[in-house]
Specification:
Number of helices: 29
Largest sheet: 9 strands, mixed
Shape: elongated
Length: about 800
Amino acid sequence: KDKIIFVFLRQFCDFMVMVLLFAAIISAACGETVDALMILAIIILNGVLGFVQEYKAEKSLAALEKLYTPESVVLREGKEQVVLSENIVPGDIVILRQGDKAPADIRLTEAYNIETEEAVLTGESAYVEKTSAVIDAVKEISAKKNMVFSGTTIVKGRGMGIVTATGMSTEMGRIAGLLDSAGNEPTPLQLRLKSLGKWLITICVGVCAIVSVLGILTGGDVYTMILTGVSLGVASIPEGLPAIVTICLALGVWRLAKYKAIVKKLPAVETLGSTTVICSDKTGTLTENTMVLDKVYIKGRWHLITELTDGDLGVVGKVMAYCHSLRESAGSMLGDPTEAALYNGLKKLAPNLCTTKKIDYENPFDSGRRLMSVLVDQSSLVKGAPDTVISKCDKVLTEKGIQTIDDIARKSLLREVDTISRRGYRILALAYRENIVSLKDMENSLTFGALVALADPIREDAVESLKISAKAGVKTVMITGDHSGTAFAVAKNLGIADNENQIMLGRELEEGVRPIEDIRVFARVSPEDKMRIVRHYKNRGEVVAMTGDGVNDAPALREADIGIAMGMGGSDVTKEAADFILSDNNFTNIVHAIEEGRGIYDNIRKFVRYLLSSNLGEVLTMFIAVLFGFPLPLVPLQILWINLVTDGLPALALGLEKPGKETMERPPRPKSESVFARGLGAKIVVRGCIIGFTAIGIFLGAIMVYGDMTLARTMAFTALVFSQLFYVFDCRSENDTPFSLGFFSNIYLVWAVLISVALQCLVLYNPWLSRVFLTSPLSLEQWGVILLLTSLPTFIGAFWSFSKKKLKNIFEKQEK
């Protein structure tokens, strides 16, 4: 409970929250209780949201406990005993059976056709064959064939072994330690808002002090000047900024939900928009994660599976139909994905062959023999590694019938295997022997039947998405536990890599044999390798997005600026550690999220530009009047009203702008880039000065023409409101004008402006409100002056932008 309270209270130590608290105190001092309560409500809302997100992230380590078996069978005092897994110690002998989840790291002493599912550790879906043989010391998990690791599942066979490590000393525990040590740094958006908050508080204090002191020194009423300074202080802080940012991010989350992207942390939406490097898993993200039978080499030629008929297969079809260890459940064949792909491919091609038939004898797959065989109707049907199967064949099936195979024919077959393997296929060889007399003859003197090529097809839309991300300046690197040849073939088809020098193995990364700047594919990687890759890119100033689904990916996801968990088949640990969860594991949706994130940041810049320019205009109006000894153009209540009418709905409507066409045609912004970069600061200052000078000019002109102070203040008051309402349309884009965009393309902004206009007119023409705000009605002539002068900057800016584009086109044509 103490930890939960601490996490909650920590949400209110943010610098921007301090700024808001200061604004609430100022508002309360001005008697604006509603404003003060609204600001406090925003603070509490943001605190609750932050607490929920952080508390969920802290649960990632606790999720590791779900991977441990509550009870296990051990051999103690010569008897089998069921004990709690937490009570197992190194040296215990654990008995393992199919379906068990290993409670610790175990070195096998007996192994009978054991296969384990290690995807949570290695990321690879293929089952791993285990042996009790002694193996030389190796670092790679995939090479430790005599070890069963904590948290992995026994999917086939049985055995027993000695516990070598428990708890945090296991491979799973080591990953938990990496997850705990991985960084959890502030997002780029949080850093930028913190920087903006410091800048705003400095301005606020300065404005309060300068205006109040100057006013008093020039003979102004002390109370009035202090109240005016405080009111300007409130106006100078866009207290609605965090709320608008939160709403803008929430809208982004809602839009991303259409792309099956679940966002756990709101700032992550914007962070993904600043991504410069995507470290993507291969299986399931860039590929379909569905092993399929694609080609068959039979009678001397490769055929697409769609080109064959059941008559073309002959006895080879029987091998595909019966030589497997699949089990049927609810109409589906469960077991090894490769065998299932082979069987399902045959089922589509020749369903009549996939009928239940008694298998007289099975010689299961063994990692030493590298093949399996079954006896059906006195025929031996064999499937296995191509080099092993081919070496056991003395005949081959050809177009001319069965012929003797020689060394030349064997080498030719092996060349076919090598060639097709380099294209990313997994190859199996099929063979048979008829009229078996003795079981010892099942795997000897075989007739070679066919080679089958299975593939995990790339996602059709991933190629185009990779092109879009590359055009947007986002580098994609593929990280996989696959063999380098398979990884390169997939990467080449996707357009990620174009030569084998762009591949690096995990052990090369650890040894530091060459730099990784130009590497596009990392193969045979470990969890440490993944973290090392992420940290390398982060140290170079990159904003890194990392995808993954297994426990082995969780530390790297936590370390990355943005962690993306795969929702289909992903582990709980990974989902807890991530900022994003893609429920369909589709890389294309990562690109959509990047576009959405960029659009959100653009919108944040838009309403920062709008709010600060508007507030600067108000401050300058009062500052110039005080500096030169003019009467005050506004009373404190009018300042607060302007802040309410212009800083609310119009600014929020800017956050509803959709990403522009050019959003994914520009490079990512630098991680250290200020919110005011790319000329935004200059635009804020220039337009703020124009707004301020326009208001003070109208105020002084009204005094000279009408000689009525109330009317002059009303005109200055209204001019400030309408200057900002015209300006909000300019803020919709940093490159296009309101006329080229179309005023009605953001209908929410139109309605927001109309509501603000209505509220301003209410203050001018409602007798009770007019007395409260010290205003007077305006004539058509006075309205004409205000509308002309406040809209003029928008029209001039549009004409200047149009002229620049025309001149640019003319010069480009002349250069051609």
